[in-house]
Amino acid sequence: SDHRLSYPIRPDEMDWSDYFPAFFSKKRKFDDEDAVNDDEVEGIQNPSVAGVQMDTKKVEIADIGCGFGGLLISLAPTFPETLILGMEIRTQVTAYVHDRITALRNQCLSGGTKGEGEQEGLEEGESGESESVPGGYQNIGIIRANAMKFLPNFFEKHQLKKMFFCFPDPHFKARKHKARIISPTLIAEYAYILRPGGIIYTITDVENLHLWMAKHLEEHPMFERLTEEEQETDVCVKIMRTDTEEGKKVERNKGSKWVACFRRREDPV
Ligand code: SAM
């Protein structure tokens, strides 16, 4: 439960090196005397990526309640220069996604560069090296967190350019609606961490939840809905329709998928 979750006091206290070791060196803990000569704090275990300036990037895309990580893995080569963070509350699911990302990174580092499960068709001696994956999956990370509680501890004002809410838990009963991840209070928080022009993507197979999310986002003064055309030409919409595990399940069961996307407006003068 929540009391076991660790989160930074404020965003600049966050040590991102565990999640994106190619982009962040370990934060030195000044209160830890032993750490001063510890190689780990110097970040030398980091896999260096050519041309990367350490400690300069920030997470800019968040997948809220990312589940088994399908969206992260598809977004990784689509936005190879952007750090993308999955947030998931379930411990075992988080561990699974962590292992999945590590395996993909290692596969890229060792020269086998095709995606998961795509190696089978290769003849002996073929490594698939010609199709390298942009970013080598170094740009995606997963953290165990309750995204309904601590987001402003992780992200500063205007930090994010995209937030995904893919097939969030529907909490069907009226008395449970307050547990929904899109609510007036939380929307205000999302507006704070999203930059002007940033986008909230929502998708669900539950029409009632779709109407709820769209209604609350439409009613919020800091958001405007994307037009049908904007929505349908956005590559992220295409990816989130097909590449999350929940989306695939809905596909198999021939269910409907409801999409609504909203742009964060400029701050009022
Ligand atoms: N987005 C994934 C997909 O489309 O395949 C997973 C969808 S699943 C129905 C909803 C996920 O949200 C679950 O993995 C659940 O553990 C996670 N979740 C629910 N509440 C959360 C919270 N407050 N913070 C982070 N994750 C949460």
Automatic annotation (TrEMBL):
Binding of S-adenosyl-L-methionine, residues: 65, 88-89, 146-147, 166, 244-246
PANTHER family: 3-DEOXY-D-MANNO-OCTULOSONIC-ACID TRANSFERASE/TRNA GUANINE-N 7 - -METHYLTRANSFERASE (PTHR23417), TRNA (GUANINE-N(7)-)-METHYLTRANSFERASE (PTHR23417:SF16)
GO molecular function: tRNA (guanine(46)-N7)-methyltransferase activity; tRNA binding
Keyword field: Methyltransferase, Nucleus, RNA-binding, S-adenosyl-L-methionine, Transferase, tRNA processing, tRNA-binding
Comp. bias (Acidic residues): 118-129
Active site annotation, chain numbering: 169
Similarity annotation: Belongs to the class I-like SAM-binding methyltransferase superfamily. TrmB family.
Catalytic activity: guanosine(46) in tRNA + S-adenosyl-L-methionine = N(7)-methylguanosine(46) in tRNA + S-adenosyl-L-homocysteine
UniProt xrefs under Pfam families: Methyltransf_4
Superkingdom of origin organism: Eukaryota
Lineage summary: Eukaryota, Fungi, Dikarya, Ascomycota, Pezizomycotina
EC assignment: 2.1.1.33
One GO term describing the cellular component: nucleus
Pathway where this protein functions: tRNA modification; N(7)-methylguanine-tRNA biosynthesis
Main location: nucleus
Gene: TRM8_1
Annotated function: Catalyzes the formation of N(7)-methylguanine at position 46 (m7G46) in tRNA.
Tagged with keyword RNA-binding: yes
Location in the cell: Nucleus
Protein name (database record): tRNA (guanine-N(7)-)-methyltransferase
Record's subunit section: Forms a complex with TRM82.
Disordered, as annotated region: 109-133
Naturally occurring in which organism (per UniProt): Orbilia ellipsospora
